[in-house]
Amino acid sequence: MSKECKYCGFRDPMPFTCKFCGSTFCYNHRLPESHNCPGLASYKERVRASGKLSQKEPDLIARKRRDSIFRPLANALSVIKSNYSLSILVIAIISFILQYIPGYSSFFALSPSDIFNEPWKFAINLVTHIFLHGDAYHLFFNMLFLFFFGPELERRIGGKRFLAVFFMSGIIAAIGYTLWSFFTFFVFDRPLVSAIGASGAIFGIFACLTILAPHMRIYVIFIPMRITEALIFFALLDLLLIGSGDPIARSAHLSGVIAGLIIGWYIKKKGKYLRG
């Protein structure tokens, strides 16, 4: 059963219980030295006072479980629930299936004009549009990025902070897209178009991870490069094509990058993240 690490907040599907303090930790912080264990200090004091090594081991009770055809499913669900990145991925896939219901996409998509016509709907759609996608390719590439970079960021900053990065980046990306849409509407007389997709939130994850692990090596179209170089490449690409009129919400991408960089800088300044 998955539990949150007391030190970093990561939800580990196979948590470790410290024998000295009794708290639950993830794999990276399972050792007493990794989570500044207060119980270890007390134990050392007792050893020094008594002059001998003594430790009471917890009783181990072996329980026989019945084989079940549902166990593989239960194990898969446990892994998904223990990882917010995978949970978001599953929700996006389910939402994509639900888009075949008439009116589903139009209601949950982000429409800039709703900020005046239906502000309550606009506020809701700042979040709901993240889980919608235009087609299978759109869904596939967004979830591919999330699958590779989401768990890595979550491992470093913990589940709760990861969710904060994801949703804050997605909302800021939506606001950036709305402002850009109104700019092009008034200046270039372009129509206001609804937006869907998790790209802004995922670019926020990507940018945040770049700040925390700037020397990480990744592959972009089978070309090895540092994650910093990859972020610069994607950001410049969006800047060059932002006025091209293509159906990609590049202003949302760039807004997500800015959000991720700021949040990543803040997390790095606080120092509460896993290095390496």
CATH architectural category of the largest domain:
Up-down Bundle
Q: Counting H and I runs of at least 4 residues, what is the number of helices?
A: 11
Poorly predicted runs: 55-62
Average pLDDT confidence is: 87
Overall tally of structural domains: 2
Q: How are helices and strands ordered from N to C?
A: EEEEHHHHHHHHHEEHH
Number of strands: 6
By CATH reckoning, the class of the largest domain would read Mainly Alpha
Helix content: 55-70%
Distance between the termini: 27 Å
What is the CATH fold-level name of the largest domain? Rhomboid-like fold
Helix-strand layout with pairing:
Elements: E1 3-4, E2 11-12, E3 16-17, E4 24-25, H1 38-50, H2 71-81, H3 84-98, H4 104-108, H5 114-117, H6 119-128, H7 136-157, H8 159-188, H9 199-212, E5 217-220, E6 223-226, H10 227-241, H11 250-270
Antiparallel strand pairs: 1-2, 3-4, 5-6
Helix pairs in contact: 3-7, 7-8, 7-9, 8-9, 8-11, 9-11, 10-11
Folded structure, characterized:
The protein starts with a strand and ends in a 6-residue tail after the last helix. The protein is mainly α and 276 residues long. Helix content is 58%, strand content 6%. The model is unreliable at 55-62 (pLDDT under 50). The strands form 3 sheets. The chain has a two-stranded antiparallel ribbon with strand order 1-2. It has helices at 38-50, 71-81, 84-98, 104-108, 114-117, 119-128, 136-157, 159-188, 199-212, 227-241, 250-270, and strands at residues 3-4, 11-12, 16-17, 24-25, 217-220, 223-226. It has 11 helices and 6 strands. The chain has 2 domains: 1-82, Zf-an1 domain, CATH 4.10.1110; 83-270, Rhomboid-like fold, CATH 1.20.1540.10.
